Amino acid sequence: MDDSVLREQLAELLRGGEAHAKADAALADVNPQFRNVRPPAEVHSVWEELEHMRIAQQDILRYTLDPSWTSPEWPEGYWPPKTDTVTDEMWQASIDGFTADIEELIALVKNSAVDLTAKIPHGDWRTYLRQILLVADHNAYHLGQIVQARKMLGDWRS
After folding, report:
1. Is the C or the N end of the chain the one with fewer CB within 10 Å?
2. Number of domains forming the structure of the chain
3. What is the DSSP string of 117-158?
């Protein structure tokens, strides 16, 4: 069976767009003064959301590929520590890490030697496809929260 269409559609799902915000658009031109501001106290800042996505995505990817990977403690290990400032270097490193892991996931999806419906060899019931869909779903959710936070802060240009 030729599954190239499925693989291309999964790659596009990971890139975002269509029914979901693309990471590039959601994170474009975030005013540095708003990166670490919580609109109301119970809403995460753009920085917190970005770092959470990066950490969770990295964990899912590394778990999928590396049997010796150790996941962060739940839930505190999946969120960045509190900080008063988010430097340009911190911001760029987070975006770079997030982007690199997405590209690695897309390469995995496009690798026809990987049976996407197979269980991960060192896993329990998880399949490669499940992990890929989990990343896409998680990112779509939090990218939407980033857009909402930016709107609440007056830092969104639609």
Report:
1. N
2. 1
3. TSBPTTSSS-BHHHHHHHHHHHHHHHHHHHHHHHHHHT----
Exposed/middle/buried for 38, CB within 10 Å: 0-12, 13-18, 19+? Answer: middle
User: How far apart (Å, rounded) are the C-alpha atoms in residues 13 and 141?
Assistant: 13
C-beta of residue 71 within 8 angstroms of C-beta of residue 77: yes
The pLDDT confidence band at residue 61, using thresholds 50, 70 and 90, is: very high
Report pLDDT digits (tens) over 77-100: 999 999 999 999 999 999 999 999
Grouping H, G, I as helix, E, B as strand and the rest as coil, residue 99 is helix
Q: Would you say residue 109 lies in a domain? A: yes
Q: Which two tokens stand for residue 77?
A: 């290990």
Range of the domain at 67: 4-153
- Note whether residue 158 is domain-resident: no
Task: Determine the residue type at 15.
Answer: R
Q: Is residue 77 situated within a structural domain? A: yes
CATH of the domain at 122: 1.20.120.450
What pTM value is reported for the model?
A: 0.95
pLDDT for position 41: 85
In-domain check, residue 22:
yes
